[in-house]
Amino acid sequence: MQAIIIGFMGSGKTTVGRELSESLNVNNHDLDEIIVNQIGESISSFFKTHSEAEFRKIERQQLQKAMNLEGILSTGGGTPMQNSQIFKATSIPVFLLDAVDETILKRLTKESGRPLVEKLGMDGILQLKAKRQPAYEAISDYIIHTDNKTPQAVSKEIINKLRSR
Ligand SMILES: Nc1ncnc2c1ncn2[C@@H]1O[C@H](COP(=O)(O)OP(=O)(O)O)[C@@H](O)[C@H]1O
Ligand SMILES: O=C(O)C1=C[C@@H](OP(=O)(O)O)[C@@H](O)[C@H](O)C1
User: Fold this and answer.
1) Can you tell me the ipTM of this complex?
2) Euclidean distance between CA atoms 67 and 4, whole angstroms
């Protein structure tokens, strides 16, 4: 793996991961997509019939496998929470996509299908974001601010960091 992308829901992990892997001409892996293929249903439908703990167990297993793949890996917003050791132990650079609350709200309201958004509502989501922030920062090699930047600009910033390593 050349880079791992972490960050809160709506920070742009999936979008930037695609952009980045295209620019670098390497494989793109999206952990949520890998999980969807594994469980055979969408994450939101899985959450309706299973506990979050069951989801986290599958997420951890798939993360462990995905760490051995080549290319770019974008993760889910909750992936770092119980897996900090995996991120700390790797030599692969970890990029945190950061955004202020207002940006996250704008991006998330454009879309549906995130079970935690449905469950917690927007106030709850922003509380969760604040709660997770220290854990994200603790495992990041680089923090990339994404407010008012296109996914292409964010991707270019990551490429510059990778080239100056
Ligand atoms: N830099 C950006 N600027 C504007 N919109 C963005 C940016 N990055 C992502 N988006 C949009 O925000 C939404 C969430 O992006 P997504 O990549 O799915 O985030 P994540 O994978 O982190 O949950 C999508 O509608 C996407 O098009
Ligand atoms: O933050 C979270 O706990 C989650 C984020 C989602 O991924 P995105 O960050 O790609 O939306 C997905 O893994 C699941 O719905 C749980």
Assistant:
1) 0.99
2) 9
